[in-house]
Amino acid sequence: MSVRMAPRLPLIFLLMIHGDAGWGVRYSHSHICALKDSSVIMSCTYTYPTGHQIMKVFWTKTNVRKDNEEFPDLSNDTEYSQRLQYLGDKQQNCTIRLSHVTQKDEHMYYFRFITDKPDGKWLGDPGVSLTVTDDTDLQVESPERVTEGDSVRLTCKSSCTLTDRATFIWYRNSQPLTERRDTNNQLLLQSVRREDAGRYSCALHGHTYISPAVHLNVTYPPVNPVISISPSAEIMEGDSVTLICSSDSNPPPEISWFKGEMFVGSGRIYSISKISSDHSGEYKCRSRNKHGEKDSDAVTLNVMYRSRNVSVSITGSAKIVEGGSVTLICSSDSNPPALNFIWFKENQSSSVGSGQSFSALQSGRFYCEAHNQHGSQRSDAVTVTVHHGACKNAFVITAASGGGLFIIIIIIIIIIILLKM
After folding, report:
1. Assigned domain for 180 exists
2. What pLDDT, in 10s, does the model give residues 152-198?
3. How far apart are CA 368 and CA 403, in angstroms?
4. Boundaries of domain holding 277
Protein backbone atom coordinates (compact mmCIF):
# COMPACT_ATOMS: atom_id res chain seq x y z
CA MET A 1 0.00 0.00 0.00
CA SER A 2 1.56 3.18 -1.05
CA VAL A 3 0.91 6.49 0.69
CA ARG A 4 0.83 9.60 -1.43
CA MET A 5 2.41 12.51 0.39
CA ALA A 6 1.07 16.01 -0.12
CA PRO A 7 3.55 18.40 -1.68
CA ARG A 8 5.47 20.50 0.81
CA LEU A 9 4.20 24.13 0.92
CA PRO A 10 6.67 26.95 0.63
CA LEU A 11 7.96 28.25 3.94
CA ILE A 12 6.79 31.82 3.30
CA PHE A 13 3.19 30.68 2.86
CA LEU A 14 3.27 28.84 6.15
CA LEU A 15 4.52 31.93 7.94
CA MET A 16 1.66 34.05 6.53
CA ILE A 17 -0.92 31.64 7.80
CA HIS A 18 0.79 31.48 11.15
CA GLY A 19 1.10 35.25 11.35
CA ASP A 20 -2.55 36.12 10.67
CA ALA A 21 -4.59 33.29 12.08
CA GLY A 22 -6.07 34.40 15.44
CA TRP A 23 -3.90 37.49 15.83
CA GLY A 24 -5.38 40.99 16.13
CA VAL A 25 -6.08 44.19 18.07
CA ARG A 26 -9.46 45.94 17.94
CA TYR A 27 -9.70 49.58 19.10
CA SER A 28 -13.04 51.06 20.24
CA HIS A 29 -12.15 54.38 18.56
CA SER A 30 -9.61 54.91 15.82
CA HIS A 31 -9.61 58.64 16.53
CA ILE A 32 -10.04 60.37 19.90
CA CYS A 33 -10.48 64.09 20.51
CA ALA A 34 -9.87 65.10 24.13
CA LEU A 35 -9.97 68.31 26.08
CA LYS A 36 -6.69 69.72 27.34
CA ASP A 37 -5.90 68.61 30.92
CA SER A 38 -8.56 65.90 30.77
CA SER A 39 -8.06 62.14 31.01
CA VAL A 40 -8.35 59.93 27.94
CA ILE A 41 -9.46 56.31 27.85
CA MET A 42 -8.12 54.27 24.91
CA SER A 43 -10.13 51.08 24.88
CA CYS A 44 -9.11 47.98 22.96
CA THR A 45 -9.16 44.19 22.94
CA TYR A 46 -6.63 41.73 21.48
CA THR A 47 -6.62 38.12 20.34
CA TYR A 48 -3.92 35.50 19.70
CA PRO A 49 -3.87 31.79 18.84
CA THR A 50 -4.32 29.13 21.47
CA GLY A 51 -1.14 27.64 22.84
CA HIS A 52 0.46 31.03 23.37
CA GLN A 53 1.08 32.65 26.73
CA ILE A 54 1.22 36.44 27.07
CA MET A 55 4.52 37.56 28.43
CA LYS A 56 4.41 41.34 27.98
CA VAL A 57 1.87 43.99 27.03
CA PHE A 58 2.51 47.71 26.47
CA TRP A 59 1.61 50.77 24.38
CA THR A 60 3.90 52.62 22.04
CA LYS A 61 3.63 55.63 19.74
CA THR A 62 5.57 54.34 16.78
CA ASN A 63 5.01 51.54 14.33
CA VAL A 64 8.56 51.52 12.98
CA ARG A 65 11.40 49.62 14.67
CA LYS A 66 15.02 50.64 14.41
CA ASP A 67 17.55 47.90 13.71
CA ASN A 68 15.17 45.19 14.89
CA GLU A 69 15.02 46.77 18.32
CA GLU A 70 11.83 46.37 20.29
CA PHE A 71 9.25 49.15 20.09
CA PRO A 72 9.69 51.68 22.93
CA ASP A 73 7.33 51.13 25.89
CA LEU A 74 5.51 54.36 26.89
CA SER A 75 5.50 53.30 30.55
CA ASN A 76 9.27 53.72 30.48
CA ASP A 77 9.05 57.22 28.98
CA THR A 78 9.36 59.96 31.63
CA GLU A 79 6.81 62.04 29.70
CA TYR A 80 4.20 59.31 30.22
CA SER A 81 5.22 57.15 33.16
CA GLN A 82 3.37 59.25 35.76
CA ARG A 83 0.31 59.78 33.57
CA LEU A 84 -0.19 56.39 31.91
CA GLN A 85 -2.20 53.65 33.61
CA TYR A 86 -2.77 50.22 32.09
CA LEU A 87 -6.35 49.13 32.82
CA GLY A 88 -6.25 45.89 30.83
CA ASP A 89 -4.95 42.43 31.52
CA LYS A 90 -2.86 39.70 29.93
CA GLN A 91 -5.78 37.90 28.39
CA GLN A 92 -7.76 40.15 26.00
CA ASN A 93 -8.30 43.65 27.45
CA CYS A 94 -5.70 46.26 26.52
CA THR A 95 -7.34 49.51 27.70
CA ILE A 96 -5.23 52.40 29.08
CA ARG A 97 -5.89 55.78 30.68
CA LEU A 98 -3.74 58.80 29.84
CA SER A 99 -4.28 61.76 32.16
CA HIS A 100 -3.55 65.51 31.92
CA VAL A 101 -3.21 65.44 28.17
CA THR A 102 -1.74 68.41 26.29
CA GLN A 103 -1.13 69.28 22.67
CA LYS A 104 2.27 67.52 22.96
CA ASP A 105 0.39 64.21 23.36
CA GLU A 106 -1.12 64.42 19.87
CA HIS A 107 0.21 61.21 18.26
CA MET A 108 -0.72 57.81 16.92
CA TYR A 109 -0.77 55.19 19.68
CA TYR A 110 -0.39 51.41 19.20
CA PHE A 111 -0.85 48.39 21.45
CA ARG A 112 1.93 45.74 21.44
CA PHE A 113 1.89 42.27 23.00
CA ILE A 114 4.54 39.53 23.15
CA THR A 115 3.93 35.81 23.79
CA ASP A 116 6.21 33.01 24.85
CA LYS A 117 6.80 31.84 21.28
CA PRO A 118 9.69 33.21 19.26
CA ASP A 119 7.38 34.50 16.50
CA GLY A 120 4.49 35.33 18.85
CA LYS A 121 4.56 39.12 18.73
CA TRP A 122 1.93 41.54 17.47
CA LEU A 123 1.51 45.31 16.95
CA GLY A 124 -2.01 46.70 16.58
CA ASP A 125 -1.54 48.77 13.42
CA PRO A 126 -3.35 51.02 12.51
CA GLY A 127 -3.62 52.41 16.02
CA VAL A 128 -5.45 55.28 17.74
CA SER A 129 -5.03 58.90 16.70
CA LEU A 130 -5.24 61.40 19.61
CA THR A 131 -6.14 65.07 19.11
CA VAL A 132 -6.10 67.49 22.05
CA THR A 133 -8.16 70.69 21.98
CA ASP A 134 -8.29 73.69 24.29
CA ASP A 135 -11.63 74.61 25.94
CA THR A 136 -11.15 78.16 24.66
CA ASP A 137 -12.19 77.10 21.17
CA LEU A 138 -15.75 76.24 22.27
CA GLN A 139 -18.40 77.85 20.07
CA VAL A 140 -22.21 77.83 20.13
CA GLU A 141 -24.01 77.12 16.87
CA SER A 142 -27.57 78.46 16.76
CA PRO A 143 -30.05 79.70 14.15
CA GLU A 144 -30.14 83.49 14.04
CA ARG A 145 -33.92 83.66 14.20
CA VAL A 146 -36.76 81.29 15.14
CA THR A 147 -40.51 81.75 15.39
CA GLU A 148 -42.37 81.24 18.65
CA GLY A 149 -43.64 77.66 18.85
CA ASP A 150 -40.81 76.17 16.77
CA SER A 151 -38.24 73.70 18.12
CA VAL A 152 -34.65 74.86 18.13
CA ARG A 153 -31.38 72.99 18.70
CA LEU A 154 -28.20 74.72 19.91
CA THR A 155 -24.84 72.96 19.61
CA CYS A 156 -21.68 73.50 21.68
CA LYS A 157 -18.82 72.76 19.30
CA SER A 158 -15.05 72.63 19.49
CA SER A 159 -12.42 72.17 16.81
CA CYS A 160 -13.04 68.42 17.04
CA THR A 161 -15.75 66.20 18.44
CA LEU A 162 -14.91 65.28 22.00
CA THR A 163 -15.02 61.52 22.45
CA ASP A 164 -14.60 61.46 26.21
CA ARG A 165 -17.75 61.74 28.33
CA ALA A 166 -17.66 65.52 28.75
CA THR A 167 -20.55 67.22 30.55
CA PHE A 168 -21.79 70.47 29.05
CA ILE A 169 -23.32 73.38 30.97
CA TRP A 170 -25.50 75.99 29.24
CA TYR A 171 -25.97 79.67 30.06
CA ARG A 172 -28.61 82.22 29.01
CA ASN A 173 -27.75 85.87 29.53
CA SER A 174 -24.78 84.76 31.67
CA GLN A 175 -27.05 82.83 34.03
CA PRO A 176 -26.63 79.03 34.19
CA LEU A 177 -29.56 76.92 33.09
CA THR A 178 -29.39 74.79 36.19
CA GLU A 179 -31.97 72.34 34.91
CA ARG A 180 -29.79 71.59 31.86
CA ARG A 181 -26.54 69.66 32.38
CA ASP A 182 -26.11 67.38 29.38
CA THR A 183 -23.64 64.63 28.52
CA ASN A 184 -24.07 65.57 24.88
CA ASN A 185 -23.24 68.90 23.35
CA GLN A 186 -26.73 69.97 22.27
CA LEU A 187 -29.44 72.04 23.93
CA LEU A 188 -32.96 71.34 22.63
CA LEU A 189 -35.70 73.91 23.21
CA GLN A 190 -39.10 72.40 22.49
CA SER A 191 -41.83 74.83 21.41
CA VAL A 192 -39.64 77.88 21.94
CA ARG A 193 -41.17 80.88 23.77
CA ARG A 194 -40.38 84.57 23.57
CA GLU A 195 -38.89 84.25 27.07
CA ASP A 196 -36.27 81.89 25.58
CA ALA A 197 -34.74 84.73 23.56
CA GLY A 198 -31.34 85.85 24.77
CA ARG A 199 -27.59 85.29 24.57
CA TYR A 200 -26.55 81.64 24.91
CA SER A 201 -23.11 80.28 25.81
CA CYS A 202 -21.74 76.91 26.90
CA ALA A 203 -18.97 75.49 29.03
CA LEU A 204 -17.56 72.14 30.08
CA HIS A 205 -18.26 70.96 33.60
CA GLY A 206 -15.17 71.39 35.75
CA HIS A 207 -13.70 74.12 33.53
CA THR A 208 -13.93 77.87 34.06
CA TYR A 209 -13.93 78.93 30.41
CA ILE A 210 -17.31 79.94 28.93
CA SER A 211 -17.77 80.19 25.17
CA PRO A 212 -18.64 83.46 23.41
CA ALA A 213 -22.38 84.14 23.56
CA VAL A 214 -24.66 83.79 20.54
CA HIS A 215 -27.97 85.66 20.40
CA LEU A 216 -31.16 83.67 19.84
CA ASN A 217 -33.87 85.89 18.35
CA VAL A 218 -37.44 84.62 18.86
CA THR A 219 -40.03 86.30 16.62
CA TYR A 220 -43.75 86.46 17.45
CA PRO A 221 -46.94 88.36 16.49
CA PRO A 222 -48.23 91.46 18.34
CA VAL A 223 -49.77 90.84 21.75
CA ASN A 224 -52.28 93.08 23.58
CA PRO A 225 -51.62 96.58 22.22
CA VAL A 226 -52.42 99.25 24.83
CA ILE A 227 -53.15 102.97 24.34
CA SER A 228 -52.01 105.60 26.81
CA ILE A 229 -53.27 109.24 26.68
CA SER A 230 -51.25 112.32 27.55
CA PRO A 231 -52.31 114.40 29.35
CA SER A 232 -54.26 111.82 31.30
CA ALA A 233 -56.35 114.49 33.06
CA GLU A 234 -59.48 116.18 31.72
CA ILE A 235 -59.07 117.25 28.09
CA MET A 236 -60.13 120.82 27.27
CA GLU A 237 -60.84 122.20 23.85
CA GLY A 238 -57.67 123.78 22.51
CA ASP A 239 -55.33 121.41 24.36
CA SER A 240 -52.69 119.29 22.61
CA VAL A 241 -53.30 115.55 23.11
CA THR A 242 -50.97 112.61 22.41
CA LEU A 243 -52.04 108.96 22.03
CA ILE A 244 -49.29 106.34 22.40
CA CYS A 245 -49.71 102.71 21.26
CA SER A 246 -47.54 100.18 23.11
CA SER A 247 -47.33 96.69 21.64
CA ASP A 248 -45.11 93.69 22.43
CA SER A 249 -44.00 92.00 19.19
CA ASN A 250 -40.91 90.84 17.32
CA PRO A 251 -40.10 92.19 14.82
CA PRO A 252 -41.42 95.63 15.88
CA PRO A 253 -44.91 96.27 14.50
CA GLU A 254 -46.38 98.81 12.12
CA ILE A 255 -49.05 100.88 13.95
CA SER A 256 -52.28 102.22 12.41
CA TRP A 257 -54.83 104.49 14.14
CA PHE A 258 -58.60 104.45 13.75
CA LYS A 259 -61.40 106.69 14.98
CA GLY A 260 -64.34 104.36 14.92
CA GLU A 261 -63.77 102.53 11.64
CA MET A 262 -62.03 105.45 9.90
CA PHE A 263 -58.25 105.42 9.44
CA VAL A 264 -56.76 108.60 10.88
CA GLY A 265 -52.99 108.06 11.10
CA SER A 266 -49.99 105.76 11.47
CA GLY A 267 -46.97 105.43 13.72
CA ARG A 268 -46.60 104.60 17.38
CA ILE A 269 -47.58 108.17 18.40
CA TYR A 270 -50.73 109.96 17.22
CA SER A 271 -50.85 113.67 18.16
CA ILE A 272 -53.71 116.16 17.98
CA SER A 273 -52.84 119.83 18.39
CA LYS A 274 -55.57 122.29 19.45
CA ILE A 275 -58.14 119.58 19.93
CA SER A 276 -61.80 120.40 19.27
CA SER A 277 -65.10 118.77 20.05
CA ASP A 278 -65.02 117.21 16.57
CA HIS A 279 -62.15 115.01 17.80
CA SER A 280 -64.33 113.43 20.49
CA GLY A 281 -64.95 109.72 19.95
CA GLU A 282 -63.48 106.22 20.29
CA TYR A 283 -59.91 105.53 19.13
CA LYS A 284 -57.99 102.27 18.73
CA CYS A 285 -54.60 101.26 17.34
CA ARG A 286 -53.81 98.24 15.20
CA SER A 287 -50.42 96.54 15.63
CA ARG A 288 -49.17 94.41 12.73
CA ASN A 289 -46.03 92.49 11.75
CA LYS A 290 -45.36 89.59 9.38
CA HIS A 291 -46.63 87.07 11.96
CA GLY A 292 -50.07 88.65 12.53
CA GLU A 293 -52.02 91.66 13.78
CA LYS A 294 -53.91 92.71 16.91
CA ASP A 295 -56.25 95.61 17.75
CA SER A 296 -56.14 97.44 21.06
CA ASP A 297 -59.18 98.08 23.20
CA ALA A 298 -60.87 101.38 22.27
CA VAL A 299 -60.28 104.51 24.33
CA THR A 300 -62.66 107.48 24.38
CA LEU A 301 -61.59 111.08 23.92
CA ASN A 302 -64.13 113.31 25.67
CA VAL A 303 -63.31 116.94 24.88
CA MET A 304 -64.66 119.45 27.40
CA TYR A 305 -65.67 123.01 26.41
CA ARG A 306 -67.59 125.90 27.88
CA SER A 307 -71.14 126.85 26.90
CA ARG A 308 -71.44 128.21 23.36
CA ASN A 309 -74.03 128.83 20.67
CA VAL A 310 -76.46 130.04 23.34
CA SER A 311 -79.86 131.07 21.90
CA VAL A 312 -83.44 131.82 23.00
CA SER A 313 -86.50 130.25 21.39
CA ILE A 314 -90.15 131.30 21.93
CA THR A 315 -93.02 128.93 22.65
CA GLY A 316 -96.66 129.51 23.48
CA SER A 317 -100.08 129.76 21.83
CA ALA A 318 -100.46 132.16 18.93
CA LYS A 319 -103.86 133.17 20.37
CA ILE A 320 -103.15 135.31 23.39
CA VAL A 321 -105.90 135.71 25.98
CA GLU A 322 -106.10 137.85 29.06
CA GLY A 323 -103.56 136.64 31.61
CA GLY A 324 -101.51 134.80 28.99
CA SER A 325 -97.73 134.72 28.83
CA VAL A 326 -94.86 133.96 26.49
CA THR A 327 -92.42 131.18 27.43
CA LEU A 328 -88.81 131.70 26.51
CA ILE A 329 -86.40 128.68 26.39
CA CYS A 330 -82.58 128.96 26.61
CA SER A 331 -80.51 126.45 24.57
CA SER A 332 -76.75 125.84 24.79
CA ASP A 333 -74.04 123.62 23.28
CA SER A 334 -71.53 122.63 25.98
CA ASN A 335 -69.62 119.69 27.48
CA PRO A 336 -70.55 118.86 30.12
CA PRO A 337 -74.12 120.14 29.49
CA ALA A 338 -75.00 123.51 31.04
CA LEU A 339 -77.04 123.15 34.23
CA ASN A 340 -77.24 126.82 35.26
CA PHE A 341 -79.31 129.37 33.24
CA ILE A 342 -79.88 133.00 34.25
CA TRP A 343 -82.33 135.44 32.59
CA PHE A 344 -81.83 139.18 32.18
CA LYS A 345 -83.86 142.12 30.87
CA GLU A 346 -81.92 144.79 29.08
CA ASN A 347 -81.23 147.93 31.07
CA GLN A 348 -81.67 146.10 34.37
CA SER A 349 -78.65 145.30 36.49
CA SER A 350 -80.09 142.26 38.26
CA SER A 351 -81.43 139.01 36.84
CA VAL A 352 -85.15 138.50 36.31
CA GLY A 353 -85.22 134.70 36.47
CA SER A 354 -83.39 131.39 36.36
CA GLY A 355 -83.84 127.96 34.84
CA GLN A 356 -83.80 126.84 31.26
CA SER A 357 -87.32 128.32 30.60
CA PHE A 358 -88.71 131.75 31.54
CA SER A 359 -92.26 133.21 31.36
CA ALA A 360 -92.29 136.80 30.11
CA LEU A 361 -95.32 138.89 31.31
CA GLN A 362 -94.18 142.33 30.20
CA SER A 363 -92.68 144.07 27.24
CA GLY A 364 -88.91 144.28 26.89
CA ARG A 365 -85.78 142.70 25.44
CA PHE A 366 -84.72 139.52 27.22
CA TYR A 367 -81.59 137.33 27.02
CA CYS A 368 -80.11 134.38 28.93
CA GLU A 369 -76.70 133.22 30.10
CA ALA A 370 -75.83 129.47 30.09
CA HIS A 371 -73.14 128.23 32.53
CA ASN A 372 -71.15 125.00 32.91
CA GLN A 373 -68.03 124.34 34.98
CA HIS A 374 -65.75 125.62 32.21
CA GLY A 375 -67.43 128.96 31.46
CA SER A 376 -70.52 130.78 30.26
CA GLN A 377 -71.93 132.61 27.22
CA ARG A 378 -74.74 135.12 26.71
CA SER A 379 -77.45 134.79 24.04
CA ASP A 380 -78.71 137.51 21.72
CA ALA A 381 -81.75 139.42 23.10
CA VAL A 382 -85.32 138.81 21.90
CA THR A 383 -88.11 141.38 22.11
CA VAL A 384 -91.35 140.77 23.96
CA THR A 385 -94.21 143.27 23.29
CA VAL A 386 -97.48 143.50 25.28
CA HIS A 387 -100.46 144.95 23.34
CA HIS A 388 -103.40 146.16 25.53
CA GLY A 389 -106.91 145.74 23.95
CA ALA A 390 -109.98 148.26 23.91
CA CYS A 391 -112.36 146.17 26.03
CA LYS A 392 -112.31 145.12 29.65
CA ASN A 393 -108.76 144.80 30.75
CA ALA A 394 -108.10 142.48 27.82
CA PHE A 395 -104.60 142.61 26.52
CA VAL A 396 -102.62 140.81 23.92
CA ILE A 397 -98.95 140.03 24.21
CA THR A 398 -97.11 140.25 20.96
CA ALA A 399 -93.69 138.74 20.99
CA ALA A 400 -91.42 139.49 18.09
CA SER A 401 -87.90 138.88 17.11
CA GLY A 402 -88.02 140.94 13.93
CA GLY A 403 -90.54 138.78 11.98
CA GLY A 404 -93.19 140.94 10.17
CA LEU A 405 -95.50 138.05 9.30
CA PHE A 406 -96.03 137.23 12.98
CA ILE A 407 -97.09 140.88 13.66
CA ILE A 408 -99.58 140.77 10.77
CA ILE A 409 -101.18 137.59 12.17
CA ILE A 410 -101.56 139.21 15.60
CA ILE A 411 -103.23 142.30 14.07
CA ILE A 412 -105.72 140.10 12.18
CA ILE A 413 -106.59 138.26 15.41
CA ILE A 414 -107.19 141.58 17.22
CA ILE A 415 -109.50 142.79 14.43
CA ILE A 416 -111.55 139.57 14.59
CA ILE A 417 -111.92 139.91 18.39
CA LEU A 418 -113.08 143.55 18.06
CA LEU A 419 -115.65 142.64 15.41
CA LYS A 420 -117.18 140.01 17.70
CA MET A 421 -117.58 142.42 20.58
Report:
1. yes
2. 999 988 877 776 667 888 999 999 887 665 667 889 888 999 999 99
3. 20
4. 222-301
